[in-house]
Design brief:
It contains three helices and 24 strands. With 458 residues, the chain is mostly beta strands. The N terminus is likely disordered.
Length: 458
């Protein structure tokens, strides 16, 4: 309720200004939106095997093919999602062309940080010169997430494209160099490189465990090309020592490198020896773009290759207590009870995913249609984490600018459809089984959704 009151007040305030606020060298910009989604075929489940449906039940043991989850109820779920983002920019250009700037961005969703644990979307300082490019230092958005979002959000597929795969969303401690723009006879392009790191993650609660958590490190390369008919972007990320996930909005934070859980761990009968996971490695390669057939027709496309080294399930092992505390889930690991070992090793995996969309502009109206394909994964893991499954997430959208009310206001709506290859855990590129409007392949292979929203920019 407080969030909606704040959102309503902000929308009213923005009607006083069309393009944000300018206070000398300081400018404020951002957006506010209120969105509601309704989805069917959303349900709960129970299992004939407790291990297969523990927590977020992605895993099914391939050695036990009769293990599956029973849907207990299937119905309709309504989900509100108000969001506010404000960016403050302080910039000054000297007579010699050198520009200094500082940027701070904060985003809230449903009354809290949009990304849990991340107070700032951006918080950096930079210097630029026209013939040399720019250098930025601080908390910055990863191109892997922000540019995937930039292409997929206008066609209603942001969650399906930018929030899946092996990319990261933001770097808390980073240095980024962006070249000047190069002009050629066939178009213009820029090149960019970012190095990022963060503090090591340590889950120990006492002094009895060794501090072996790795320091995460990241290299991101980015290139953008454009001409009259095309915008094409290439992004490559490679990292080690970071927490693994298939959530493309995952911030770049350290992973634990701690003793691996084994049978009996979590109590007095837990592991008595230390078995450590290997250094996690993760990378993503993205090629995406827009092509304008005419000023009224635009094609959006994307190709993505994700790689994970796999990470064993880990814990903070206290030698004095003799058991693990604060378990940390691994990624694409094998269950110890069925792989003839006393721990859960991580297995490497890779996936290929695709995006395709079409937009038509007609006056104040925009019509869109698009789909994301999440492919099967390649891995040797004997435990089934969704590597044999695939999914198609599609959306038909309608947008209208509302200058009659406020020049920067628009309303939008979308009809979505999710289809899975088979019942069971979701594809490995997908963050969780219920990521898309709560439609869960354990419960149903397909489902529909309806989204309505209002957006104002300033």
């Amino acid at each position: 309720m407080k969030t909606r009151i704040l959102l309503a007040g902000l929308l009213g305030t923005l009607s006083l200004s069309a393009y944000g606020a300018q206070f000398g060298a300081l400018s404020l910009s951002g957006f506010a939106k209120d969105e509601i989604g309704v989805a069917n075929n959303v349900g709960n489940y129970e299992s004939n095997n407790a291990m297969a449906c523990y927590g977020d039940p992605r895993a099914v043991l391939s050695t036990h093919p009769n293990t599956y989850c029973y849907p207990t109820s299937v119905g309709t779920v309504t989900t509100p999602s108000p969001m506010i983002q404000v960016t403050a920019t302080l910039k000054h250009e000297f007579d010699n062309g050198v520009t200094l700037e500082g940027v701070a961005t904060h985003r809230m969703r449903n009354g809290g940080n949009d990304i849990v644990g991340q107070n700032w979307f951006e918080k950096y300082v930079g210097i630029s010169y026209p013939s040399l490019g720019s250098l930025m230092v601080g908390t910055q958005l990863a191109r892997a997430w922000s540019r995937q979002d930039g292409f997929s959000y206008p066609i209603g597929l942001s969650t399906a494209w930018s929030e899946t795969g092996a990319g990261f969303s933001l770097f808390q401690d980073s240095v980024r160099y962006t070249s000047r723009m190069f002009h050629t006879s066939f178009g213009k392009f820029t090149l960019e490189a970012t190095y990022a790191t963060n503090h090591p993650f340590n889950s120990y609660v006492g002094p009895n465990g060794p501090d072996l958590a790795p320091t995460p490190q990241m290299l991101e390369l980015f290139a953008q090309f454009s001409n009259h008919d095309n915008l094409i972007e290439f992004t490559f990320e490679t990292s080690h020592g970071a927490g693994q996930s298939s959530w493309g909005k995952n911030p770049f934070v350290g992973a634990p490198n701690l003793p691996v859980l084994g049978p009996g761990a979590g109590g007095a009968g837990g592991l008595s020896t230390n078995i450590y996971s290997s250094l996690p490695r993760q990378s993503v390669l993205i090629l995406e773009g827009d092509h304008w057939f005419t000023p009224k027709w635009m094609l959006t496309w994307g190709l993505r290759h994700s790689y994970w080294s796999g990470a064993a399930i880990t814990c903070g092992y206290d030698k004095a207590l003799g058991y693990c505390t604060y378990p940390s889930g691994g990624f694409n690991y094998a269950n110890a009870l069925y792989n003839t070992t006393s721990y859960q090793p991580g297995y490497s995996a890779s996936t290929n995913d695709f995006l395709l969309g079409l937009s038509h502009y007609r006056g104040l109206w925009t019509y869109t249609a698009g789909a994301v394909y999440l492919g099967r994964a390649r891995t040797d893991n004997p435990t089934q984490w969704g590597q044999s499954n695939w999914a198609v997430i599609s959306n038909f959208g309608l947008y209208r600018k509302m200058p009659e009310i406020y020049r920067n206001l628009s309303f939008y709506g979308g009809i979505g459809y999710v289809y899975y290859g088979h019942h069971g855990p979701a594809p490995l590129s997908q963050t969780s089984n219920a990521q898309f409007s709560g439609i869960n392949p354990w419960v149903s292979r397909s489902g529909e959704s309806l989204t309505l929203g209002a957006l104002v920019t300033f």
